Automatic annotation (TrEMBL):
Its EC number is 2.7.4.8. PROSITE patterns: GUANYLATE_KINASE_1, GUANYLATE_KINASE_2. Keywords: ATP-binding, Kinase, Nucleotide-binding, Transferase. InterPro entries: Gal_Oxase/kelch_b-propeller, GK/Ca_channel_bsu, Guanylate_kin-like_dom, Guanylate_kinase, Guanylate_kinase_CS, Kelch-typ_b-propeller, P-loop_NTPase. It holds the Pfam family Guanylate_kin. The keyword Kinase applies. CDD domains: GMPK. One of its GO terms (cellular component) is cytosol. This is guanylate kinase. It comes from the Eukaryota.
Length: 400
């Protein structure tokens, strides 16, 4: 339990203005009660002052809790609207924010959050930004060291720079001559990384060839924020962890033509000392077996001739012109009115402008097809406007 904030329990009953949807707001905070907890969302986060704070009042114990907040946090704004969805997440509208930043989800009881609560042994919430449309799933590329994962990913990023973004992993290994911090990896001290793992900042991590490697939640979200499809280059242990997590992804295993060829490539790359080469080759045997039999992977590609393998990779990602082109992830392009009230009809949240009610459009946030969520983005949000006030309501009632 955290220290009692300046805001006291009585405030939950007194002095808070209802935002019209079961939640109340004061200044730049909104509160919403779900089961035996009241969530106070807004103001500034104590740890990172440039992001929205979250506090929880437990009505049963009368205690305040400052939860561990996972995921990239939204930047604060003047006021918020909060709507509970299925009692496991709260849809937050950042009033007056740009279309690509106005809809967020605060997860408090989703599968991912429950897992994190178990792992961390404390109260956890997780932010996930809402994006409309069916943003493409991240791509996990795995395979033994030296098989050509990095080479294939570089080719993809070079040919489709606006489509793919690389998830920059953290590692405790030393940088190689040409590697840049923040580009190839975030190079980090082991003790710091271990601390960050304990704080739940990593989607997955593994000890690989004597060093720690891991994908931070932020690394995946940074890519999603840029509207690109995320590519992860991780080992088989990492792929297994991501498969078990709630991040929906496509899993591709890259296989070498033979152990001899793998050894040739690893040695020709010239980045590893002999002891490391041998360690990597020993692990490769186990990884190849696992890659082909574990059921983790959706696709196995053999990287014999590089160009052939690259063509196959493009084909299965729908980039060879024979399948439907990848849709770029897009955020909702509709401006939500800064001053509004909300109501909910089944899976539709109706946003009604406060001013000139009759003449303005209603905005509908259809949450019936939500996918993904923390860690990462919440996809499948359908945002549309309905022009006439009365026609709009009829249409929504008709649809629901
Ligand atoms: N199909 C191929 N034929 C021959 N050489 C290849 C092929 N694919 C990649 N290579 C070469 O093999 C070496 C290893 O490739 P790369 O660094 O991409 O492997 P990796 O799987 O990313 O390894 P690591 O997991 O250690 O990062 C590089 O020198 C690369 O140029
Ligand atoms: N589980 C994870 N594995 C990772 C991650 N980033 C890279 N890797 C894998 O480590 C080995 C070695 O990489 P190298 O750069 O030292 O050659 C390789 O198999 C990578 O795929 C990660 O974040 N998590």
């Amino acid at each position: 339990m955290g220290e009692a904030p300046a805001f006291v329990a009585d405030d939950l009953q007194n002095g808070y203005q209802s935002n019209g949807f079961g939640s109340k707001s004061k200044d730049c905070e909104t509160t919403i009660s779900i089961r035996d907890k009241t969530y106070v969302i807004g103001g500034n986060d104590d740890e990172s002052p440039l992001s929205v704070g979250v506090r929880i009042f437990d009505k049963a114990t009368g205690n305040w809790e400052i939860p561990t907040v996972l995921g990239t946090k939204p930047k604060p704004c003047k006021s918020y609207t909060a709507v509970s969805l299925n009692d496991d997440r709260i849809l937050i509208i950042k009033k007056g924010s740009t279309p690509d930043d106005c809809i967020w989800f605060l997860e408090m009881d989703t599968h991912y959050v429950r897992e994190q609560k178990k792992n961390l042994g404390r109260e956890v919430v997780a932010w996930s930004k809402g994006v409309s449309g069916n943003a493409e799933k991240p791509v996990v590329i795995s395979g033994p060291s030296g098989v050509g994962k990095g080479t294939l990913i570089s080719m993809l990023m070079k040919e489709f720079p606006s489509m793919f973004g690389f998830s920059v992993s953290h590692t405790t290994r030393a940088p190689r001559a040409m590697e840049k911090d923040g580009v190839h990896y975030h190079f980090i001290e082991r003790s710091v990384m271990e601390e960050e793992i304990k704080d739940g900042k990593f989607l997955e991590f593994a000890s690989v060839f004597g060093n720690l490697y891991g994908t931070s939640i932020e690394a995946v979200e940074v890519v999603a924020d840029s509207g690109k499809r995320c590519i992860l280059d991780i080992d088989v242990q990492g792929a297994r962890s991501v498969r078990a997590s709630s991040l929906e992804a496509i899993f591709i295993f890259i296989c070498p033509p033979s152990m001899e060829e793998l050894e040739k490539r690893l040695r020709a790359r010239g980045t590893e000392a002999e002891e490391q080469v041998l360690k990597r080759l020993r692990t490769a045997k186990i990884e190849i077996e696992e890659g082909q039999s574990s059921g983790i992977f959706d696709h196995i590609l053999h990287n014999d001739k590089l160009e052939d393998c690259y063509e196959k990779l493009k084909k299965l990602l729908g980039l060879d012109g024979t399948t439907v082109a990848i849709q770029k992830s897009s955020s909702q392009g509709i401006n939500l009115p800064a001053e509004h009230s909300v109501s909910k009809i089944d899976n539709k949240i109706i946003v009604t402008p406060e001013l000139e009610r009759a003449s303005k459009s209603l905005i509908v946030l259809d949450v019936s097809s939500l996918k993904g969520g923390a860690p990462g983005r919440t996809r499948g949000l359908d945002v549309y406007a309905i022009d006439s006030f009365s026609d709009g309501l009829n249409e929504i009632n008709h649809l629901s």
